[in-house]
Amino acid sequence: MKDADYILFEDYLSGNLSHEELKAFELRLKADPEFSHAFELYKETSGFLENKYKNEDELISFKGNLKNISENYFNKNNSSNNRSLWWKVAAAACILLFVGLYFFQQFSRPGYQEFANYQAISLTERGAENELLFKAEEAFNAGKYQEAEKYFEEILEDDDNNHELKLYRAISLIETENYLKAEEILDEISNSTSVYQYEAVWYKALSRLKQEKYQESAEILKTIPKEEAKYAEARKLLDRLE
């Protein structure tokens, strides 16, 4: 039994074995019950991790780090050939546990992009002659938020009570990481009786999420009432944060 057999398990599951190595591996599975049992244990653990890390890049990163750690561990303990198989499997399981816990903590946090799903906005009617509104709409829908924010700012100079446009300006500011100004606008809307009052609260929570201020984001989300349209989304995000 090799010291780093579970690395061989991973190579098998990943399809990285040569034809000869694959044949030898499968023969060993049939001939060596302990080896076969250890492989089944590893396969189950690997399946668990794949369910935890849905993002392929995260899983690849996890496995790469695991492989490096395991190689270092077993190289340092090369003289322990007389140890039993269960001890090796236990050591491998410990590495999986601790490294897995670290990566789970790193990647289980919700991401801003998961929840910042902005619908295309429509500010102008066909034939309407408002060039600035058209440009703002076009820039926002194209994801050109810095450009869109400038247009919204200019439009609002003559339409300061338009909370819808203020909301879109705040979103543009969040996207360009101008959080202070964005939240100043959102606070103004949320402290009003506007129909956009709780949408502003939602986007302020997203602003804090993007800044990785998870606890602050959670506290803001708790202020959205059940009857509001954003409540279901807020609850979903809150469940991920807590």
Please tell me about this protein's structure:
- By secondary structure, the chain is an all-alpha fold.
- It folds into two domains: 5-107, no CATH class; 112-241, Serine Threonine Protein Phosphatase 5, Tetratricopeptide repeat (Alpha Horseshoe).
- It is 71% helix and 0% strand.
- It has 13 helices and no strands.
- α9 (163-175) packs parallel to α11 (197-210) and α10 (179-190) runs antiparallel to α11.
- The two termini are 44 Å apart.
- Mean pLDDT is 80; it is low at 79-87.
- Keywords: Membrane, Transmembrane, Transmembrane helix.
- InterPro entries: TPR-like_helical_dom_sf.
- The chain crosses the membrane at residues 85-104.
- It holds the Pfam family TPR_19.
- It comes from Marivirga aurantiaca.
Say what the CATH topology of the largest domain is.
Answer: Serine Threonine Protein Phosphatase 5, Tetratricopeptide repeat
* Mean pLDDT across all amino acids: 80
Structural class: mainly alpha
Query: Helix count?
Result: 13
What order do the SSEs take from the amino end to the carboxyl end, as H and E?
HHHHHHHHHHHHH
Give the CATH H-level superfamily of the largest domain: Tetratricopeptide repeat domain
User: Low-confidence segments, ≥5 residues, pLDDT <50?
Assistant: 79-87
Number of domains: 2
Shape: elongated
> If classified by CATH, what would the architecture of the largest domain be?
Alpha Horseshoe
CATH class category name of the largest domain: Mainly Alpha
- Tell me how many strands there are: 0
Protein name: Tetratricopeptide repeat protein
Transmembrane segments: 85-104
InterPro entries: TPR-like_helical_dom_sf
Keywords: Membrane, Transmembrane, Transmembrane helix
